[in-house]
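Per reviewer request, we include the raw input and output of the structure prediction for the construct analysed in the revised manuscript.
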Amino acid sequence: MSVEGVEIHARDFDGFLKEVHSFEFWFQSVEGYLVDHPYGVDPKAPIPDLTESERDALISTLSTYCVGEVAALDGASGMIGFAPNRQSKIFLATQVVDEARHLEVMLHRLSELGVTDAEAEFEARANPNLLAFRDRLGEFVAAKDWEASIFAQNVILESMEFAAFHSHMQTADPRTAEMLAGVLKDERRHMGFGENDLGRHLEQSPHARTRLREIKKELDALVLATFEDSQRALGTPASERSEVGRLYLESVARLGFDK
């Protein structure tokens, strides 16, 4: 993998961070899967014929996803004002654009499914555990608590969405799966930023790990309850529902919060 013809592993670390936190890197990353894909889908992709129960389950699931995207959109935009440096501000600006696009494509998919006013209706159909998570993230951002905000948003929430979307893609109709595939590419970038930022922070302030472990314990309960409800709604067999939770926990464990 290279950026502007230079192998990433040959770059100095500070130069690498400057590059990947730039708008130029963001544009190169998203161009390949956004060009000619309005609302994240090939316009020639057929709209699938779903049963009423499949349609209802998908509407509820996408409504919950929309709450997650709104939480990340509001969180990232709010965090720009107290981000610790210019590079973080620029990265968060690109994340705001990503989250706004995710929300837009999901609202469009809800409209395709026959939801009359998706903007007004999605919150009423969303999982209450994720609504509680959104409120908690909002509290961290309102307090200008960078440590807790970046952990809750770019580690916990992004890992949650990565696990949910990755799992859902395996059984989704082709149109929904293609939309989620594009969103997943962005989530990987957002997770990388959070892990990198917190990893460097914890090297300097290892005592912060104790506090973040407590925040994780609080938020894990909301995440795993959301997974259970969403997997049940999508018809995932009980024997397979733990897989999405495992994927989430493994993503967060990379920072060592399971120890």
